[in-house]
Design goal:
With 379 residues, the protein is an alpha/beta fold. It folds into two domains: 135 residues, Enolase-like, N-terminal domain (Enolase-like, domain 1, 2-Layer Sandwich); 220 residues, Enolase-like C-terminal domain (TIM Barrel), CATH 3.20.20. It has 13 helices and 14 strands. Strand 10, helix 11 and strand 11 form a beta-alpha-beta unit. Helix 1 packs across helix 4, helix 2 packs antiparallel against helix 4 and helix 4 packs across helix 11. Bound molecules: magnesium ion.
């Protein structure tokens, strides 16, 4: 296939008020945001991507404006021979702009969304799914786990999640050490045969608190413990914790850059590594890292907790990487994700990869329009 020239960039932001905030150990999400981007080439082919927007609270509209006012000039007219060309181009050409404002994260997130959109566009032009575009031997379905369950609400939510067919679940902890542990113990005791349970502290603890937790919870049979300490704690802290813990450790949603992911794989403290396609790297970065995680003998489990486009892209990535990892599926209500799956996200805990071109949909679900807060176009 010959190269393409990008002719048009569109970005929209969305916000859905929620009655029950999504609680993490570091803060609450009082609405569900999303940023969706669409690229169109000179011949009218198009592709969709999603840009991370969960944090900070005002981040969605900022990222959309950042794309249009500080990055789109580097995108319009760009010729790509391969789907990963835009990522390489933007990581280089936006470096000084990102350095000048210290906004590495927002720049990387916008680039990630654009990279996903360009991969979708290339796969659509070929008439194959994104997973197939990345790997002709990609899986046709990937196993998923139910995520976003507050430990305090698990007694209500877990039975419902079970009814939906999930056999693996992750609870959010890191709120009150003793209560968390008591609730977690009860949850583990009520686990059904074959069920896997994971816990995510969202970086809540210092090393001493984390060591205490793994000593107390080591017998619970947890599949992994996610971000017990800050992602940027010294490698020595992670090593000490990993060496003391019977529970395997997981992290990755707050790791960025090939060098840091390579270092995490090399260090060996993490059993499960979880890059986020909308946060850093897009398809280019996450596919390469997913393969490196697998080659390094670790398990690749994509992190994702946003809208429908990023979830589908994460599923295709996991299918293409072909590891024995699980897809993270947020089970909290979110119309910005649910509208993409009128028949449900998973069946019996399995996420299907369709044969339809690209990410498998052409237009955004009409029901999203009422939640739109911003709509910008450059061409
Ligand atoms: Mg997490």
């Amino acid at each position: 296939m010959t190269g393409i020239s990008i002719a048009r960039v569109e970005v929209s932001t969305y916000r859905v008020p929620v009655t029950t905030p999504v609680m993490t150990s570091f803060g609450a999400m009082t609405n569900r945001p999303a940023v969706f981007v669409r690229l169109t080439d000179a011949e009218g082919a198009f592709g969709w991507g999603e840009i991370f927007a969960n944090w900070p609270a005002a981040g969605a509209e900022h990222r959309a404006r950042l794309l249009m006012e500080d990055i789109a000039d580097l995108v319009i007219g760009f010729r790509a021979e391969a789907a990963s060309d835009l990522f390489q181009h933007l990581m280089t050409t936006t470096h000084i702009r990102a350095l000048q404002c210290g906004e590495w994260g927002p720049f990387a997130q916008v680039i990630a969304g654009l990279d996903t959109a360009l991969h979708d566009l290339f796969a659509r032009r070929k008439g194959v799914s994104l997973a197939f575009h990345l790997n002709p031997d990609a899986a046709r379905a990937v196993p998923a786990y139910a995520s976003g369950i507050h430990i305090g609400a698990a007694h209500d939510i877990v039975p419902r999640v079970r009814q939906l067919g999930y056999r693996a679940m992750k609870v959010k902890i890191g709120f009150h050490a003793d209560t968390d542990l008591t609730l977690l113990r009860a949850l583990c005791a009520g686990r059904h045969d074959g069920e896997r349970l994971f816990a995510d502290a969202n970086q809540a603890w210092d090393l001493r608190q984390a060591l205490r937790f793994v000593a107390q919870a080591g017998d619970l049979g947890l599949g992994w413990l996610e971000e017990p300490i800050r992602a940027d704690m010294p490698a020595g802290h992670w090593a000490e914790l990993a060496n003391s813990s019977r529970i395997k450790l997981a992290a990755g949603e707050n790791i960025t850059g090939f060098d840091d992911f390579d270092a995490a794989i090399e260090a060996g403290h993490l059993g499960f590594i979880q890059p986020d396609v909308a946060k850093w790297g897009g398809i280019t970065g996450c596919h390469r890292i997913g393969q490196a995680i697998r080659a390094g003998g670790r398990t690749y489990c994509p992190h994702f907790l946003g809208g429908g486009i990023g979830l589908i892209a994460s599923g295709h990535l996991l299918a293409a990487v072909g590891s024995d990892g699980l897809l993270e599926v947020d089970i909290n209500t979110n119309p910005l994700r649910d509208a993409f799956f009128p028949d449900g996200m998973c069946k019996e805990g399995v996420f299907a990869i369709t044969d339809a071109p690209g990410l498998g949909f052409d237009e955004l679900p009409e029901s999203l329009a009422r939640y739109r807060t911003l709509d910008l176009v450059r061409h």
